[in-house]
Specification:
With 452 residues, this protein is of the alpha+beta class. It is built from 15 helices and 18 strands. Helices cover 35% and strands 23% of the residues. A hairpin with a 5-residue loop joins strand 1 and strand 2.
């Protein structure tokens, strides 16, 4: 019997870029409604791609069209740990007018794959699949169990994806260790590249602020109680509010681990100077530094009024509030009242989504395995903990008892500033070298942590 030849880097590059392009072209756009997403299209592709490996493959649908796929390499030792590699298949909506290329074309141009989801996070979803397929075809028989999860609905609230699976199909996805998006970009330092690992994420406190007024004829606006005018003042105050700067443990460990130099370190770790320093930083790093150390308030949707010639008596302002580690709903309400000032007593605040911040420790076998593997793939590198300011499906697994990190490996071609700005932005793209690095990472991590 002939031994199968493992894929070389060139073959991995072709396979990963081709699979990524297919996932991009499926346009699994999640607009937050139950009828969007259509992740079943990408589950079809992945099931076909993994189907000739002998892997145990299952499909789970919370509602029609919103499918997730689970593939397993069962371990030989039931006492050994389980590693779950999790990538989502849905993407956020896009305005093509801001793009230089078709956002759902999946084009390969100058060594980069373009398209919505190329960075967030179809690149990892694809490379995880390539790695698991290659491991299965090579006869990988680990002590621990390896699970690949291509999950739906991450870009909304996880209702039809990770949350549903942990509530209703827990045995299929239960794992000791989970890796998902989105660290692993290389940050240059005097001591070698530093690779951020997402060990935690901010919490959320999405709410609706309702402003009441008195209706009247719009031809006589003088001394009217116009709810829209009051709502505009609410938005202005939220946009200009400066909440306290908080230097928490994860931020301090990140700054000290990267070591930006004495001057930058001092300002990045000084609660009195950090906010103003963010005005000087490159925009990608500035946004991350500010969001990592502040409770953020972003008015995102405003609705109200009934007719052009009627003074509006009700306006709703929806606000995306992201909370820091340790903050509770009561803490957020105090900050919100502080931001609104005298208007706080005259509006109604209705929370409609609340999740506290989650995190995992760094003193774990998974962290150690990632450190060993990544240092071989990126010479001279070391891991540093980082806090993501958005939300990922890792929060569901942390709350269920798993250690969960966000990681991957990206080449130096993808800078931190580019990496940060392309999330939900224009001209999303990822280079092929990064696809190879991530694929090699997943292969080596599974062998190191689970045993081969």
């Amino acid at each position: 019997m002939m031994r199968r030849v493992a894929l070389d880097d060139a073959a991995i590059a072709n396979e990963a870029s081709d699979l990524l392009a297919h996932l991009i072209r499926n346009a699994c756009v999640n607009d937050g409604t139950e009828g969007s997403g259509f992740e079943s299209r990408s589950v079809d592709v992945l099931a076909q791609y993994l189907g000739d490996t002998g892997l145990e493959i299952e499909r789970y649908a919370a509602v029609p069209g919103r499918e997730s796929l689970v593939a397993r390499v069962e371990g030989s030792d039931p006492t050994a740990p389980t590693l779950l590699l999790m990538g989502h298949t849905d993407v956020v909506p896009v305005n093509p007018d801001g793009w230089r290329r078709d956002p759902f074309g999946g084009e390969l141009v100058d060594g980069e794959v373009w398209g919505r989801g190329a960075v967030d996070m179809l690149n990892l979803t694809a490379t995880m699949a390539v790695a698991v397929r290659e491991l299965a075809r090579s006869g990988f028989r680990p002590r621990g169990t390896l699970v690949y999860l291509a999950v739906a609905d991450e870009e909304n609230l996880g209702t039809f994806g990770a949350d549903h699976l942990l509530r209703h199909e827990r045995e299929a996805v239960a794992a000791d260790y989970v890796v998902t998006e989105s660290g692993g970009f290389q940050m240059p330092s005097a001591r070698g590249p530093r690779l951020p690992v997402i060990v935690g994420e901010k919490g959320s406190y999405w709410c609706r602020i309702t402003v009441r007024g008195t209706p009247g004829h719009a031809s006589q606006p003088f001394r009217t109680d116009n709810a829209l005018v009051t709502a505009a003042e609410v938005v202005r105050r939220l946009a200009e509010y400066r909440p306290p700067t908080v230097i928490h443990d994860t931020w301090r460990s990140f700054v000290e681990g990267v070591d930006f130099g004495e001057d930058w370190n001092g300002r990045l770790l000084d609660p009195e100077r950090l906010h103003d320093f963010c005005e000087e930083l490159p925009v990608g790093l500035a946004r991350q530094a500010h969001a990592c150390t502040h409770t953020t308030f972003a008015p995102t949707i405003i609705s109200g009024g009934t007719k052009t010639n009627v003074i509006p008596d009700r306006v709703d302002v929806e606000v995306d509030i992201r909370t820091l580690p340790g903050q509770r709903a009561s803490d957020v309400r105090k900050l919100l009242d502080d931001a609104l000032g005298d208007l706080a007593a005259h509006v109604e605040v209705t929370p409609f989504d609340g999740n506290e911040s989650t995190s995992s420790p760094t003193q774990t076998p998974l962290w150690d395995a990632m450190a060993r593997v990544s240092s071989r793939l990126v010479e001279g590198s070391a891991l540093v903990p980082f806090l993501t300011v958005g939300a990922t499906d890792a929060r569901f697994f942390r709350r269920s008892g798993s250690v969960a990190y966000g990681f991957g490996l990206f080449s130096r071609r993808l800078s931190f500033d580019s990496f940060a700005s392309m999330f939900h932005g224009n001209d999303e793209r990822v280079d092929v070298d990064s696809l190879v690095l991530s694929t090699r990472l997943w292969q080596a991590l599974a062998a190191d942590l689970l045993g081969g």
